[in-house]
Amino acid sequence: MGRMTQSQSRQVAIVTGASRGFGKALTAALLDRGWAVVADARRAADLKIAVTELNSAELIALPGDVADASHRVALVAAAIKAGPLRLLVNNASRLGPSPQPVLADYPPGELWAVYQTNVFAPLALIQAALPALTDNAGVIVNLTSDAAVEPYPGWGGYGSSKAALDQLSAVLAAEVSAVPVYAFDPGDMRTEMHQAAFPGEDISDRAEPESVVPALLRLLDTRPAAGRYRSADVLPSGARQ
């Protein structure tokens, strides 16, 4: 399959963590391009608000936690029912405690929850969706972070989980040549999770999620070799719309 463009017949995407932030902005952009989107979020009330704001018949909202196996089954089933599943975006993430503890004091239960959402759930969702994505020449995008490659103090839990996701993405790309797998680093954004990472600090200088979405769309349109991409490398800030 060539480029994913608006001129093609309806395509279906799964976007996790779509009630706010980057997930919501990406969902809006895909809907504008004529996609159907199966979207989820842990907080049902937030997802309901997003559905009202996006106001699209092509948006299929399923509240739930990606760490829940039955919820993942429901996401894939809804996507396959809606049409050809051609995109899976593992955007849902868990930061962990706020303020973030140093590794020496990191509660094991909290670390387990971070890895459940950021590593195990994305892989399990990929496993469930992979047959349909393979049949439909689809794409997998896993949202990562610079904390996966930089040793920032206090980011050991979240950062190490994203590093694990990066490696899963790389190995999957080597094993499944029919489906490109991208680890996409959007950079710092003005989101609720980023604010939780810096409690009490002013993050108004961070990019709005909507300004980063064009970089991911360009990645989908051009389909470079599978790998890890930073938004700034895909679409320099001066070229963003």
Architecture blueprint of SSEs:
Blueprint: E1 12-15, H1 21-32, E2 36-41, H2 44-54, E3 59-63, H3 69-82, E4 85-90, H4 108-135, E5 139-143, H5 156-175, E6 181-185, H6 192-197, H7 209-222, E7 227-230, H8 231-234
How would you characterize the overall build of this protein?
This protein has 241 residues and is an alpha/beta fold. The chain is built from eight helices and seven strands, in the order E-H-E-H-E-H-E-H-E-H-E-H-H-E-H. It has one domain: Rossmann fold. The chain has a seven-stranded parallel β-sheet with strand order 3-2-1-4-5-6-7, sandwiched between helices. Helix 2 links the parallel strand 2 and strand 3. 41% of the residues are buried.
Outline:
This protein has 241 residues and is of the alpha/beta class.
Tag the structure with descriptive keywords.
241 residues; disordered N terminus; 8 helices; alpha/beta; Rossmann fold
Low-confidence stretches: 1-8
At the fourth CATH level, what is the homologous superfamily? NAD(P)-binding Rossmann-like Domain
Number of helices: 8
Secondary structure category? alpha/beta
Strand tally is 7
Q: Report, as a whole number of angstroms, the end-to-end distance.
A: 26 Å
